[in-house]
Design a protein that fits this description.
The complex is a heterotrimer of chains A (334), B (289) and C (576). Chain B has 289 residues and is of the alpha/beta class. In chain B, 35% of the residues lie in helices and 20% in strands. Chain C is globular. Chain C contains 24 helices and four strands. Classes of the chains: A mainly alpha (334), B alpha/beta (289), C mainly alpha (576).
Chain lengths: 334, 289, 576
């Protein structure tokens, strides 16, 4: 079972009393979990907005990002190596860049070889291709990650490095414990959202993306290179997923070749919840899903059923609210 | 039958008798702030051909969609054969209403005969058990459907094209096939959405003859069309929609000369007598929903 | 491929090409008289002089085909008459040259790998490979033949029936032989031989002719296919290992066919299909007389199997009724979520997190064998002097179930309901506007497919002896889907072939089993890219995937009309 568990860290689970502190504890846990979902969900929604494709393999891009950052750490930051002296302020950005590089590379190649040739094919074709990519990437990491010199075998979970100050510290605010990794995730989400806003509204590629999502044919006639825009959409989604991959590693302390499956599904739920195709909706959807999951698993039943609740929520959203909570972009999936 | 036999003026004198088969009252369709169809009432009787004209965006196709159950009107009622029309396309078909589409929507990778047999779905009863066990009902219905589909193809003039894939048929034949498919549902009222769009004059004339033949079977026909000469030749009664409202309703001769209609089509004289090419200037464009 | 050699060269050198090709073919045939390997440990011992092993003889058969294809046109166009044009002699020879090279290369590599180095490869194998490569070069210099039109040859009925029977017998022989090879090298070499023969016959135009012959003698074809499948256990001399593989293939194929109704016929992507197999298996296990069964009611199997199907179908209705309104991509995600809910629920019904029904992740072990009217599936029976073991019994049971599923599939497909499904796939809105009850038809496919999977699951529970939740993970659904995609969506034969390939390869190629899922993930991507209609293409499906290919559309139409000319207009399907 991938370790995307609901935040049960800290001392919050000592008693299930309905007190204010516990509520805020779960709220914080939920928000940081939701930030993780939100970072992944943006990838689904950006790609969907432009090519109307559910990139089923996006969860695997998140996983690749986590493994990429881990590999970067092994090369530059592992204490036994020469990178011993690297300070946190340098190491963390370098790991993020390593993860982003890995996931963006894989995502761009995936778009090029698995999806682009299928544009215009019946909807079933890219969907099946996406499932193929998803299985392929999981298996490729499981089988071949250990073949890279210096890397551990990835057939079972790999412990993720502990970064002093980012993944092991915590702050006490009243009776509420806020893990440093939660702060990292929330800050990362905030930074990424600002970056997204800037990218979409202030850059040429971003505006081309908006134009393409509204009318690809006209965009093409206006001289926009639609192929490049689509690649950019995959790349942006992959970059954010890689940030989420690092956040996941820091939060749970290990990474696993299967971690993308469940996280991807939940992030997809978040994307639909926020109205698929709506970038900020994905952020809101992620946070709502995270908080709901944290509160629900605290107040309802045992943890054994929590994934079932998440899936039931997914089904309910898809069936009754396919246009999302915000309902901003009508989606005709008929 | 030739189109000369039906003089618009002569038909106009025919009384529209009996209970109307379709009785739409004050149909209004609102999309957000846009009122696409506003308080439109229309009656169609058996054996009658009614034309629906209007410039682009007048709400003709939207009104069609309200009649066929694709949209549920915001207000107003649609009575079909005396009953409230069910708000589902499938049930409207069952009640006896069939349509064609403005942009042909055949099942492209099926043969002509299979397309027509899909139209018979609603009039056949074979269930899964009949089909799996090849029970007598399945065999009988398959045999009858095949025979009837051949007849219908012959009726619309597609004898011998049964085994052709519908995507390979010429454009005009695809329109005919769509009509055959609609007829296969055994309708009482046939709704045709721009049946001559993209046709050459000869094909248009053939379409006209076909529609008369259908009327003579005892069906009511409601036609949306831009080709003025075609519509004024064909119809017993013409309704002109402008901006979602009924502008004029009456016999072709009356509507044709109504100054308001001419104004609605400004720059496009709705005049069918002076044109010798056989091709009336039609108000171009396609979508008017 | 054809562009390499300029066409004027093809004209000028055609006699040289043919002559060299014939020489090469003779060399290849001669090579089997020489030793291929230094010791006998590889490829069933190919180390003798003048004493060819079966695999060497197969190679000679392929080379012999090449020889015949090259030699026959030498008699001249006049004497060949219409067969000069109806048969693609040169194209088939080119294919034969390429496939015999592949076979020789596979054999050579297997020898080298199994004996530890190229040094162990003897003169014969090099001669075989050299001859084959030479034949490729030589046949490149032959002009291309026009498309074969062998199906235009009017053939007497006895010949058609004979051909069907021979093909069936050859299929039985091939299946028995392929299963008989235990080492990867021999298996792959034989597989290369089979693929070679099939490709040569295909380029020759034989299968076009056979499909007409088969369609004209539909009943003979179907009956002989089942007779052959039924006779298969007799070729195994009581080998339970092979029959175990064969029965697993059948279970897998039956489930894939059920999925094919949903995916292939209606075009709904169901990613949780394995859950229905699981529902059937768990139901059967719980109702079985296993000591770990959690219910105190043990009906006879005939009742259990129906209950299993019904439980699965009910689940299909529960999940389908609300979700089939959301169409397309969302349905795929919903079914996937449902599959996971099923698996987690089966784990949680362990008495701790829920009522005890399944013993959680341990599942229900020790499910007893079936017993039909005194016929115990668990013990061996001697029939016609051949030992028929436990797995052979289950094989036969699954064969009957598979036959039922094929009949359901085919008869539904060729009916009012099947036409409705195609219409939904093509244009759901137009179908609805033409009066087709799209929701009901989709639900029927969904629940019907689930029912069939439930039946298969019930047999699987007894076959596997134990049922655990981890057999029903998402990857298994993806694996089933890849069988459908590989074989050909919407076809029976294709899915049978796809399921056989996907289940047989990992069993026979042990070194490969760890890479199984990797390869199948890649396979799905490649198939979607290059041949989305699968190995055996459903004509209509092929058109849908190649929407802009007008040439294909005309070809298909021609085929339809030819078929009609050859057949009585009798509707297709099986009489019961």
């Amino acid at each position: 079972m991938p370790a995307l568990a609901v935040g049960t860290d800290g001392s919050a689970r000592v008693k299930k009393a309905l007190d204010v502190e516990l509520f805020f504890q779960q709220l914080i846990n939920g928000l940081s979990l939701g930030a993780l979902y939100a970072l992944i969900a943006v990838g689904y929604t950006v790609v969907y907005g432009i090519v109307q494709l559910i990139n089923f393999a996006h969860g695997e891009i998140f996983m690749i990002g986590a493994f990429g950052s881990f590999a970067t750490w092994v090369i530059v930051g592992k204490p036994t190596d020469w990178g011993l002296g690297m300070t946190l302020g340098v190491l963390l950005p370098v790991m993020l860049l390593g993860g982003i590089a890995a996931s963006v590379t894989v995502a761009v190649m995936m778009e090029r070889f698995a999806y682009r040739p299928l544009r215009g094919a019946p909807r079933l074709a890219p969907l099946i291709s996406a499932i193929g990519v998803s299985v392929f990437l999981q298996e490729a990491v499981r089988l071949f990650f250990g073949w890279i010199p210096g890397m551990p075998d990835a057939k079972s979970a790999i412990p993720y490095p502990t970064l002093t100050g980012v993944s092991d510290g915590s702050i006490q605010i009243g009776g509420v414990t806020v893990q440093a990794s939660a702060i990292f995730t929330l800050v990362a989400l905030a930074v990424c959202t600002v970056f997204l806003w800037y990218f979409v509204n202030r850059t040429k590629t971003g505006r081309a993306m908006i134009a393409t999502s509204q009318d690809p044919d006209t965009a093409r006639l206006m001289g926009i290179n639609v192929d490049r825009v689509i690649v950019a959409a995959f790349a942006v989604g992959a970059a954010l997923a890689a940030v989420a991959g690092v956040a996941h590693g820091l939060r749970y302390g290990n990474i696993d070749f299967r971690m993308g499956f469940l996280a991807g599904l939940k992030a997809f739920t978040a994307a639909v919840l926020g109205g698929i195709g709506n970038i900020y909706g994905a952020v809101v959807g992620g946070l709502v899903l995270g908080v709901t999951e944290a509160l629900a698993s605290n107040y309802l039943g045992t943890t054994a059923w929590k994934d079932v609740w998440a899936f039931i929520l997914l089904i309910l959203v898809l069936v009754f609210r396919p246009q999302g909570l915000l309902g901003s972009k009508a989606v005709d999936r008929a | 039958m030739s189109s000369d036999a039906v003089n618009p003026a002569a038909v106009a004198q025919l009384p529209a008798s009996g209970v109307p088969i379709l009785d739409a009252r004050s149909v209004t369709m609102q999309f957000g702030g846009l009122r696409a169809v506003n308080d439109v009432s229309l009656q169609v009787h058996t054996g009658e051909i009614v034309g629906l004209i209007g410039p682009n965006g007048a709400g003709k196709t939207t009104f069609f969609n309200c009649l066929t159950g694709l949209y549920k009107p915001t207000s107003g009622s649609v009575q079909f054969v005396g009953d409230q029309l069910p708000p589902k396309p499938r049930l409207a078909v069952r009640a006896g209403m069939a349509r064609t589409f403005q942009n042909i929507r055949l099942f492209h990778n099926m043969t002509a005969i299979e397309n027509v047999m899909v139209g018979m779905y609603v009039r056949t009863q074979t269930n899964a058990l009949d089909a799996v066990f090849r029970l007598p009902r399945h065999r009988r219905e398959e045999r009858e459907s095949l025979e009837r589909a051949r007849e219908l193809l012959a009726f619309v003039g597609l004898t011998g094209s049964g085994d052709q894939l519908s995507r390979n048929l010429p454009y005009g034949d695809q329109r005919r096939l769509e009509i055959a498919r609609a007829l296969a549902t055994e309708p009482k009222l046939l709704l045709l959405d721009e049946p001559t769009a993209g046709m050459n004059p000869q094909e248009t004339r053939q379409a006209e003859e076909l529609i008369f033949k259908i009327r003579d079977l005892g069906l009511a026909v409601l036609v949306i069309e831009h080709d003025m000469r075609f519509i004024f030749n064909l119809c017993d009664r013409v309704v002109c929609l402008v901006r979602g409202e009924v502008l004029v309703e009456g016999p072709p001769a009356v509507v044709q000369n109504d100054p308001r209609v001419i104004e609605a089509y400004i720059g496009m004289p709705a005049d069918s007598s002076s044109d010798d090419s056989g091709q009336t200037p039609s108000v171009g464009g396609d979508d008017n929903a | 491929m054809n562009a390499i050699i300029p066409s004027e060269h093809k004209i000028r050198f055609r006699f040289v090409g043919r002559g060299t090709g014939i020489t090469a073919a003779v060399l290849m045939i001669a090579s089997i008289m020489l030793p291929w390997a230094y010791t006998g440990a590889a490829l069933d011992d190919v180390s003798y002089w003048a004493s060819p092993s079966p695999l060497q003889i197969y190679f000679a058969i392929l080379a012999g085909l090449l020889l015949v294809l090259l030699a026959v046109p030498l008699v001249g166009k006049e004497r060949l008459g219409k067969y000069a044009k109806l048969v693609a002699w040169n194209s088939a020879a080119k294919v034969a040259a390429v496939t015999s090279t592949v076979m020789a290369a596979v054999a050579l590599i297997s020898i080298a790998l199994e004996l530890g180095g190229l040094i162990n490869v003897m003169i014969g194998a090099w001669l075989a490979l050299g001859g084959a490569v030479l034949s490729i070069i030589a046949t490149r210099y032959l002009p291309d033949s026009p498309e074969p039109r062998l199906e235009d040859v009017a053939s007497p009925r006895w010949l058609q029936i004979l051909a069907v029977a021979v093909i069936m017998a050859a299929g039985l022989f091939a299946a028995a032989t392929a299963l008989g090879y235990d080492d990867a090298g021999s298996f792959l070499t034989f597989a290369a031989f089979l693929a070679g023969v099939i490709l040569v016959l295909k380029s020759f135009g034989f299968f076009d002719w056979l499909s007409i012959a088969g369609a004209a003698n539909n009943r003979v074809l179907v009956l002989s296919a089942f007779a052959v499948a039924f006779a298969f256990p007799f070729t195994q001399n009581g080998s339970d290992a092979n029959m175990s593989i064969a029965s697993q293939v059948l279970i897998f194929a039956a489930t894939a066919l059920g999925l094919n109704i949903v995916v292939g016929l209606v075009g709904l992507l169901d990613l949780g299909y394995i859950a229905f197999l699981g529902a059937g298996a768990f139901t059967a296990a719980i109702l079985s007389e296993s000591a770990y069964s959690t219910v105190n009611w043990h009906p006879p199997f005939i009742v259990t199997v129906l209950i299993s199907g019904t439980v699965a179908a009910t689940l299909g209705l529960i999940i389908g009724a609300p979700t089939l309104r959301v169409s397309g991509d969302y349905l795929a995600i919903v079914t996937l979520a449902f599959g996971e809910i099923f698996r987690i629920t089966m784990i949680n019904l362990d008495g701790n997190d829920g009522p005890n029904l399944t013993h959680g992740s341990n599942g229900i072990p020790a499910i007893p064998d079936l017993n039909f009217l005194g016929f115990d599936f668990g013990v061996s029976h001697v029939i016609l002097g051949v030992d028929i073991g436990r797995f052979a019994n289950y094989y036969w049971l699954m064969l009957i179930l598979l036959a039922i599923i094929i009949v359901v599939f085919t008869n539904l497909n060729h009916s009012r309901i099947g036409r409705g499904w195609v219409a939904i796939r093509e244009d759901e809105l137009a179908a609805e506007a033409m009066g087709v009850n799209t929701f009901l038809l989709k639900l029927l496919a969904f629940a019907g497919g689930a029912f069939l999977a439930g039946l298969a699951g019930a047999v699987k529970a007894h076959h596997d002896v134990s049922v655990t939740p981890d057999q029903y993970i998402f990857l298994e659904s993806a694996f089933l889907l890849s069988a459908v995609v590989l074989g050909g969506m919407g076809t029976v034969l294709g899915v049978l072939i796809g399921a056989t390939i996907l289940k047989l390869l990992p069993e026979k190629l042990r070194f490969f089993s760890d890479y199984r899922l990797l390869a199948f993930g890649l396979l799905m991507v490649i198939m979607m890219r290059f041949r989305p209609e699968g190995i055996i293409a459903d004509r209509r499906r092929a058109l849908e995937f190649h929407d802009k290919n007008e040439e294909l559309a005309e070809e298909v139409e021609e085929e339809l009309i030819t078929h009609h000319a050859h057949l009585n207009p009798d509707p297709k399907g099986f009489e019961l």
